[in-house]
Amino acid sequence: MNQLLAIRVFARVVEAGSFTKAADSLEMPKTSVSKLIQELESFLRVRLLQRTTRSVTVTADGAKYYEQTARLIRDLEEIDAGFQSAQFNPRGKIRVDMGSSVATSLIIPALPDFFARFPDIEIDMGVSDRHVDLISDNVDCVIRGGAIMEQSLAARFLGHASWTTCASPAYLQRFGTPAHPWELEKDHRVICYHSARTNRVIPAAFQRGAKKFEVIGSGVLSVNESNAHIAAGLAGLGVIHTFNYAVQPYIESGGLVPILKDWRPAPYPFHVAYPPNRNISNRLRVFIDWLVEHFSTLK
């Protein structure tokens, strides 16, 4: 038995909560994962995991073993990262997750610069507007907007994004241009954005000085994905309220027209978050540093 490999596999099963997810993240057959866990348990003569047809739970001995061996794995990874850093040639794969508009408008267009600097790093990018569980989904880091609510995550601030309310020229010709946010409630169609996680509609926030409004409005369509939200605005289906970076190219080309310019709320913060109890590899560290640098150049 390769004990070090077995320990790494055991740790991944504990973190993922599933043999299948652990096997997928390690790119190993599920049978190999099961065999290594069985061999480790036989070697230690204790039951580390309690298996049922639907779930995997950690035994008391397994929790203690994980706590002690996790420190060992982090120390080994830190040693490896130190040698990689000394050679400044980080390599390997990192798994990142981010929202659709962040990926298409901000990150993917800038990735040629990142790969030019770090050609030996591979990125496995998850793109959706749902919140992933970094541990169970085995994601190294996520880019998230708003405050980081999970106390279990470490985070670095990236920057702020401003808001823009806009609609297509055809829509404005048909319905007119609103002068006040409350007009959106009764005289206009609003393309509502609802959370992919909770399915609740997220109100459009407006602010001018001390005056604040939240508008849900009504329309013929609501969506839960950022690019679809913009596509609906371009199609003339209603007013959209979204991040300026995502619609600025369409405003410049004339596909969308900004409205209610005096009613913009405070800019929205963005962070990169990662599990604090997982060692930050050199490849992940340089990627996070690059994100911070990249966001600092955005207007």
Task: Offer a concise description of the structure.
The protein has 299 residues and is an alpha/beta fold. The chain folds into three domains: 3-86, Orthogonal Bundle (Arc Repressor Mutant, subunit A), CATH 1.10.10.10; 91-154 and 275-296, Periplasmic binding protein-like II (D-Maltodextrin-Binding Protein, domain 2, 3-Layer(aba) Sandwich), CATH 3.40.190.10; 163-266, 3-Layer(aba) Sandwich (D-Maltodextrin-Binding Protein, domain 2).
Describe this structure as you would to a colleague:
The chain has about 300 residues and is an alpha/beta fold. The chain folds into three domains: about 5-85, Arc Repressor Mutant, subunit A; about 90-155 and about 275-295, 3-Layer(aba) Sandwich (D-Maltodextrin-Binding Protein, domain 2), CATH 3.40.190; about 165-265, 3-Layer(aba) Sandwich (D-Maltodextrin-Binding Protein, domain 2), CATH 3.40.190.10. It is built from eleven helices and 14 strands. The strands form five sheets. It has a five-stranded mixed beta sheet. A three-stranded antiparallel beta sheet has the order 12-7-13. A two-stranded antiparallel sheet has the order 1-2. Helix 1 (about 5-15) packs across helix 2 (about 20-25). It is elongated.
